[in-house]
UniProtKB/TrEMBL annotation, chains A, B:
Residues 29-338 form the Enoyl reductase (ER) domain. One of its GO terms (molecular function) is oxidoreductase activity, acting on the CH-CH group of donors, NAD or NADP as acceptor. SMART domains: PKS_ER (SM00829). It holds the Pfam family ADH_N_2. The lineage of its organism: Eukaryota, Fungi, Dikarya, Basidiomycota, Agaricomycotina. Signal peptide: none annotated. This is NAD(P)-binding protein. Coiled coil: none annotated. It comes from the Eukaryota.
Length: 343, 343
């Protein structure tokens, strides 16, 4: 007989007005218990959570559910969730067997019973990479970088690209893809440690936007033909002012605006003055076209070390709320991963 | 012997900080004289100006010349200029003969000696349309509407388009093209008279943005699949909030920002939330691809009345400065034309 154990969970508790507050926006709940051997699965799968991804976009789910957006809102009193990797403990679904690793949308709790398996899939690891890579360079962030770069950059050798949040899991892969395509690469981040990493992965110019003005760097090193925007606001204005004629702006995210209700942009006149094309996208829409190529190309290069990545691993499910805040504030040093269990 | 006559000119006098001020930003100068029969042409062409176009983009030329942009800055002490129609008085260039009508960039003065003829061309008028149409529905504004609609709208029957400044020479042709393509058309303008005109040319929904909130109209009548932006600022924000997934935004101009240094835009998060593509353009870049089709299609439809246009004709070169201001303030009732001479 296995003991009945506490099944810790992160619950969404209230809609924040500014930055999310751990203990208020989310709470760590220990009131639920689970008996792993006897809990009824009703045809579902019992998953033990191993790795959880914490990403900037999650702030968008912390909203009043009446506000429509591409990702559904978190539900007050229910667990928060996001991409993760887990291992199957028991299964009544023939597509999943004990010991299988799964990737997909996982609730932020130690154990999950999934009856609807539409958003998880079994993954194999032929290159024997850390499971955390499946939520980073091989997961949604890596796919975002690869697929949108292929779809929208129209990059030509000799052109110049500017990548904001360049030390993150998306930006750092964009940097490396742009270098492979023969571009001059300018990257920005918010700490000296991140700047050092950006240089290590090949950026020609790397700077700390907190100590050096983005506009000054772009005036000196530009004009820019491609801008990978993860920031919005004043950084986007600086990029608009530094754009070459016919520049492509890839609108991936706007971290500067998530916790403020919107940071203004003033320089959109450059859209027609410089004939700029700006493409917003949701990576899900690019999966059908690019998944096969991504999976054939990127995992072997990550395994060989040709493509580099960095993770900032936080240990313990109870810390998810703090990590969410750290990511919104940019305090994480690299791709944020919450390591929940070893196996 | 012809008399020596005064050759009135509009001179650029000072860079405005806000709206241009007639008499200060531009002055009407009568100090130059010309002898039409004996003035030396040095191989050039003597043109009598008939019609001059006054357009919103002209504000962009009234800047410090150190600021780069797609159109060169006006030069202090020199005549302002823009699209116009004139007639050849005398010519020493075999490509132009007396009586030919010409279209192109003309200085704002009664008579011009053009030695560089690279920006003017002889026009014919087989449909016997007013010469003013060559600077309106058949000129740069009409070509802007037609070519960018064809290039960027990706319009499908049953979709919805919102056109700002819909009573102007660009917007009013966009309205008619969109109706021909089977779209539901929403148009806005700044007076009841303009709203009436928008309805007459086929808009399904027409409103006065000064008395009705754009956001409310778009919430009721949207979502919008295409936005034709001539305004920027708060109107662009309203369009972003009302965009459907995959919407196309055509960035033609931003009249709200020209005299204020930039009106902020807050809602660019919708770029990725709604997978919006925003295309800025300069119409010159579209000419090679679309001119032939435009010239085969549009003039006969204008002549037959199938395509409607409206002009607000001001008489007298000396009024150019006032008309420039009126256009920046939206006080003109339709496409602004300065009628300088009859023939």
């Amino acid at each position: 007989m296995t003991p009945i154990i506490i099944n810790g969970r992160i619950l969404f508790n209230s809609v924040p007005t500014g930055f999310p507050e751990p203990g208020k926006t989310t709470i760590y709940d220990t009131t639920q218990t689970i008996d792993l051997e006897s809990v009824a699965l009703d045809g579902g799968v019992l998953i033990k959570v191993l790795e959880l991804s914490v990403d900037p976009y999650m702030r968008g789910r912390m909203r009043d559910p009446s506000v429509k957006s591409y990702a559904p809102a978190f539900v007050i009193g229910e667990p928060t969730y996001g991409f993760g990797v887990g291992v199957v403990v028991r299964s009544e679904n023939p597509a999943f067997k004990t010991g299988d690793h799964v990737y997909g949308i996982l609730e932020h709790q130690h154990y999950i019973i999934k009856k609807d398996v539409s958003r998880i899939k079994v993954i194999t690891n032929p290159n024997n990479l850390p499971w955390s890579t499946f939520i980073g360079v091989l997961g949604m962030p890596g796919r975002t970088a690869y697929m949108a770069w292929k779809e929208f950059s129209k990059a030509k050798p000799g052109e110049t690209v500017f990548v904001s949040t360049a030390a993150g899991p998306v930006g750092s892969l964009v940097i490396q893809l742009a270098k492979k395509d023969g571009l001059k690469v300018i990257g920005s981040a918010g700490s000296e440690e991140k700047v050092q990493f950006i240089k290590e992965i090949g950026a020609d110019v790397a700077f700390n936007y907190k100590t050096t003005k983005t506009a000054e760097v772009l005036e000196k090193e530009g004009p820019i033909d491609v801008y990978w925007d993860n920031v919005g606001g004043a950084t986007l204005d600086a990029a608009l002012e530094a754009a070459s004629k016919g520049a492509r702006f890839i609108e991936c995210g706007m971290i500067s605006t998530y916790n403020t209700g919107g940071e203004p942009v003033f320089k959109l006149q450059q859209m027609f003055r410089r004939s700029i094309t700006m493409s917003g996208f949701i990576v899900d829409d690019l999966y059908p076209k690019w998944t096969e190529e991504f999976e054939a190309t990127i995992p072997p290069k990550v395994a060989s070390g040709e493509i580099k990545y960095r993770e900032d691993i936080y240990r313990g499910l109870e810390n998810v709320g703090d990590v969410i805040l750290a990511v919104q504030k940019g305090l994480n040093k690299a791709k944020a991963v919450v390591h929940v269990a070893d196996a």
